[in-house]
Design brief:
single chain, alpha/beta, 5-stranded mixed sheet, 4-stranded parallel sheet, about 25% strand, globular
Length: about 280
């Protein structure tokens, strides 16, 4: 796949002012609107008009004057079939809690375009991951663990179509499954003991979690004694499951896993920092 990377480095100068620079030292500043957080809360309550406001605000943040012109040149120079990756770099966890995937530019949501993607990176841990990548050996077959977690107590409050979720995963991997390049393990009894046993018996390359999460980095698992009941798993408890066998990639298909609060960073951010050889 042919792709280009538009890289930007973000840093809070104070509580509201963000400094944005490209690797070519094209820099700009953006002061976050005083009503941004309120609009973000409205988005979480399902207000689509507020989503446009949040997307526009993020667009002004990522592409202030100077950087905006550089991004426009990059867009205009894309050739047919090329993809564009917007890479957001920051060591500040508050930066990574912002929903960059909602970015709007000139009145359109960029990530709705099939050729534009947004990724994030934490530069302070990047070198450790690159070093770990060099140590990895090529494996004959990739193993993927799909953890499907939906206790009845959770389902009653926030139902998900888990069969559809699993079908989407198999559909996306269909070609690789036919070639014998991938093994998929589906675990529907998502409690700590079951996952521990699976990890002890297998070294998974990818761990895909489908279910629900809560603000501050908690995942909802089944209780070991009563599978109908919820059990909230902390970042530390989840990370401890993979202390000795780290996957290459964690994929969290669960609400709130990229969101933190003033006391607790997001699960996605902490897992990325915690495991030197894993990506999120």
């Amino acid at each position: 796949m042919n792709y280009r990377v538009f890289e930007i480095n973000l840093k809070f100068e104070d509580e509201e002012k963000v400094r944005v620079c490209t690797p070519d030292n094209i820099c700009g500043f953006h002061r976050i609107s005083s009503i941004f957080n309120e609009k973000l809360k409205e988005v979480l309550r399902g207000n689509r008009e507020s989503l446009k406001y949040v997307g526009d605000e993020i667009g002004f943040m990522l592409f202030p004057d100077g950087v905006r012109e550089a991004f426009e040149r990059e867009l205009k120079s894309l050739r047919e079939g090329e993809k564009l990756i917007i890479k957001v770099n920051s060591d500040d966890r508050k930066i990574h809690e912002l929903p960059f995937e909602a970015v709007r530019f000139k009145g359109r949501f960029l990530t709705r375009e099939p050729y534009i993607y947004v990724v994030r990176d934490v530069p302070s841990v990047r070198e450790k991951k690159l070093t770990a990548d060099l140590r990895k050996k090529q494996k004959e077959k990739m193993k993927i663990l799909v953890i499907v977690s939906m206790p009845l107590e959770t389902f009653d409050k926030s139902p998900l179509d888990l069969l559809k979720e699993v079908q989407l995963i198999y559909g996306a991997l269909d070609d690789e499954l036919k070639k014998g390049n991938v093994e998929v393990y589906i675990e529907e009894r998502a409690n700590i003991n079951t996952i521990k046993k699976l990890i002890a018996e297998n070294h998974f390359d990818i761990v895909h979690f489908t279910g629900h999460g809560t603000e501050g980095g908690y995942l909802i698992f089944e209780d070991e004694r009563n599978p109908r009941k919820e059990k909230f798993i902390s970042i530390e408890d989840f990370a401890s499951l993979f202390s000795f066998r780290q996957p290459e990639l964690f994929f969290f298909d669960a609400c709130e896993t990229a969101k933190g609060n003033e006391y607790q960073p997001s699960l996605a951010y902490e897992i990325y920092r915690y495991f030197e050889s894993s990506y999120v």
